[in-house]
Each structure stands twice: as C-alpha cells, then as structure tokens.
C-alpha cells in the first residue's frame, strides 16, 4: 500500500487532470456506474478549553466508480467551530489541534477487484482541487460562453482553485473582481494572481462590485451568511456557491433572492439536499418558485439528460452543495497512478492490513 502526502499529490495532480477525472465520475454516477454514500458530520460533546465553543467532529464520505477501479473512504477528525473576524463576519474554522499543530484528513482507496487497500492519501490538496474543478464544470455547462468579467468572493485556499479552474473553462475572462472581508487579504490575492495568470485580478471594496457587471459570480468562502444581495445580479449571470447548511451548521453563501431569481438551479447532489436539510436550496420549492423536479444534478448536464443554459438572459445557479466519496475515488485514483509512475510516496506491506479470518 502506498502512502501519499499533500506534497506528493500536488506534484502530480493538475487542475486539468482533476477536471477530466471528475467529469468522468459524475457521468458514471448518473448512469449507474458509480455509487456514493452521503457525507455525514458527527459532533461529539468533547471540547478544548483553549477554544471555547469548538467541538470534536468526525466527517466521513465514501464512494466509487467503475473507471477508477476503487472505493474511496474519506475521513476528517476535526476540532470545529465558528470564529468571528474583526470585521464582524463569522466563518467556519477548523483548529490544527493534532500533534505538531496539524490536521487529520485521510483518504483510503480499496481495489474493487482484489479488495485490498491500495493507498492512503492526505486529503487537503485533493479537497482544494476537487471543489474548484467541480464548480468549474458547472461554469462550463451553465455560464455564457462570451463572459469577459467575473466576480469572486473569497481570497483564500478555495478561491485559488476556483480562479485557476474558472480560467481553464472560460478563457474568455479578462478581469476578475475579488471581494473578501479583509482588505489586506483580497489585495494580496489580487496582486499574486494577476502576476500568476496575466489577467486583471482586481480587489474591490464593496461586495456589489463583485456582482454587478459580472457574467460569472463565484463564492468560495467559509462564511456563515450570504455573500451578496441577489437583487444585484444582472440578467444572464451564472452563480456558483460551495457552502450550504450541513445539518448542524446554518451557513449559506447565497440569499433567498438569488435562488428566487434563478431561472435554473443545479446541484451536485439532490440526495444531500434532503440529507442535510439544505433549506437555502429547498427555499424556492417551498416558496413555489419552482418544483423539486426542476432542480437537476450536474451529472445530468454532463450526460445531456438535462439542459444547462437555454438563453443568454437566464440567471443560473450551481450549488456545489457537498463533498462526495465518488469524487475522492476518481481524483485519488488518478493521483495514485501518476505518483506510482514517478515513484512518489512511501510503501508499506499490504499484508499487514489483510486478515485470515472473515470480518
């Protein structure tokens, strides 16, 4: 069995590889050639006196698809809670409380044919890239093809992946307007990514500036409250969000007005909407704006079973509403194959992990 660190994965897993692996996985899942168990968060009443209000949380998700040849189990063992920034904005935060001030997030891959564990990978780099690439697939299928200006909420880890993959699927974008609550962060982000991409990445001082006049608006944050007012959206805008309620945290990036103005809403997983009671996505149905059957999945767009954009004036929303085990199967199996080609990682005897008696 091979063990791969975040550094190992980062050396081999490009945004292009991630996009390719994920679109295959979503198509297979939609066609019945993949399986996925909904993400679960379990909170336990164990607290650390250094971090009042933060609790132990165990997260798990699992899934697999035919072409990857593996079943993936992704877990995180967290100290999770909410912090308030100096600006008053609240966001979800994980504390590096493991030895050495580190985090615990692992993906284990099991062979669908030989049953054995094939690899264990750090999950952080994969987490970053699979979320950004999934949002980009939504943009590719739903945004106008002639978009030149985009808005970005967030200036951290996820915003980086979302910007990189946005430019891959919409190379027509010439300017990206970035807003986040801390001026220093958004300005540093804009400067760094302007130099890296050769595009105009501009820090803006008001959330409205990252919405009005933007053909794509991406939210890549850890916020607990909506990033902007839906009334600011121009006709024809495509909106992406990566934060929804998870059954325990009432967090959201999009307000009711955004969902109510949307002509088309697509989610990554309809099952997860009900599993987590994602009231932001269910809102338009409960308010009579659309039926539950009108809300489709990204995989259906990728297989051609559902339309993306029907006109240039439509406001479209993609709610990247969960992490899925099938994502980790697809992306981690690709990373494993590439790492094996380069001899990266550390190997341990697989026999240590096999038993002679039935489970």
Plain-language structure description:
- The chain has helices at residues 6-12, 15-30, 124-142, 157-169, 183-197, 256-261, 270-275, 279-286, 298-303, 325-342, and strands at residues 2-4, 34-47, 55-65, 70-84, 90-94, 104-111, 117-122, 149-153, 175-179, 200-203, 216-219, 238-241, 264-267, 296-297, 316-319, 346-347.
- The protein has 359 residues and is α/β, with parallel strands linked by helices.
- The chain folds into two domains: 2-126 and 324-350, ornithine cyclodeaminase, domain 1 (2-Layer Sandwich); 128-319, Rossmann fold, CATH 3.40.50.
- Helix 1 (6-12) packs across helix 10 (325-342).
- The mean pLDDT is 96.
Keywords:
359 residues; alpha/beta; ornithine cyclodeaminase, domain 1; Rossmann fold; 2 domains; eight-stranded mixed β-sheet; eight-stranded parallel β-sheet; 10 helices; globular
Topology:
Blueprint: E1 2-4, H1 6-12, H2 15-30, E2 34-47, E3 55-65, E4 70-84, E5 90-94, E6 104-111, E7 117-122, H3 124-142, E8 149-153, H4 157-169, E9 175-179, H5 183-197, E10 200-203, E11 216-219, E12 238-241, H6 256-261, E13 264-267, H7 270-275, H8 279-286, E14 296-297, H9 298-303, E15 316-319, H10 325-342, E16 346-347
Parallel strand pairs: 1-7, 8-9, 8-11, 9-10, 11-12, 12-15, 13-14, 13-15
Antiparallel strand pairs: 1-16, 2-3, 3-4, 4-5, 4-6, 6-7
Helix pairs in contact: 1-10, 2-3, 2-10, 3-4
What is the CATH C-level name of the largest domain? Alpha Beta
Structural class computed from helices and strand pairing = alpha/beta
Q: Return the CATH topology of the largest domain.
A: Rossmann fold
Give the CATH superfamily of the largest domain: NAD(P)-binding Rossmann-like Domain
Main beta sheet = 8 strands, mixed
Order of helices and strands: EHHEEEEEEHEHEHEEEHEHHEHEHE
Shape: globular
Q: Report helical residue fraction.
A: 25-40%
Average per-residue pLDDT, rounded, comes to: 96
**Count of strand segments:** 16
What's the domain count?
2
């Amino acid at each position: 069995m091979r063990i791969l660190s975040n550094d190992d994965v980062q050396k081999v897993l490009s945004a292009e590889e991630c996009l390719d692996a994920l679109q295959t996985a979503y198509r297979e899942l939609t066609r019945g050639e993949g399986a996925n168990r909904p993400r679960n968060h379990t909170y336990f009443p164990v607290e650390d006196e250094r971090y009042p209000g933060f609790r132990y949380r165990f997260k798990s998700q699992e899934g697999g698809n035919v072409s990857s040849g593996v079943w993936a189990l992704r877990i995180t063992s967290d100290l999770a809670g909410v912090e308030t920034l100096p600006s008053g904005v609240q966001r979800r935060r994980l504390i590096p409380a493991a030895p050495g001030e580190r985090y615990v997030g692992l993906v284990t891959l099991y062979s669908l044919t030989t049953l054995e564990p094939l690899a264990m990978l750090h999950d952080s780099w994969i987490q970053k890239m699979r979320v950004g690439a999934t949002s980009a697939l939504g943009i590719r299928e739903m945004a106008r093809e002639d978009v030149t200006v985009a808005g970005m909420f967030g200036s951290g880890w996820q915003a980086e992946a979302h910007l990189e993959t946005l430019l891959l699927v919409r190379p027509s974008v010439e300017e990206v307007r970035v807003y986040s609550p801390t001026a220093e962060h958004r300005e540093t982000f804009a400067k760094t990514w302007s130099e890296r991409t050769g595009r105009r990445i501009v820090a803006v001082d008001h959330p409205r500036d990252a919405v009005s006049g933007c053909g794509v608006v991406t939210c890549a944050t850890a916020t607990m409250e909506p990033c902007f007012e839906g009334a600011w959206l121009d006709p024809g805008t495509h909106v992406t969000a990566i934060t929804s309620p998870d059954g325990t945290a009432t967090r959201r990036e999009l307000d009711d007005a955004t969902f109510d103005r949307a002509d088309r809403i697509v989610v990554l997983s309809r099952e997860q909407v009900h599993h987590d009671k994602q009231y932001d996505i269910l809102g338009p149905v409960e308010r009579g704006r659309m039926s539950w059957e009108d809300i489709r999945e990204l995989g259906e767009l990728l297989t051609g079973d559902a339309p993306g954009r029907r006109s240039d004036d439509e406001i479209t929303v993609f709610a990247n509403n969960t992490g899925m085990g099938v994502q980790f199967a697809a992306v981690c199996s690709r990373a494993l194959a590439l790492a094996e080609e380069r001899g990266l990682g550390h190997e341990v005897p697989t026999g240590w992990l096999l038993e002679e008696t039935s489970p």
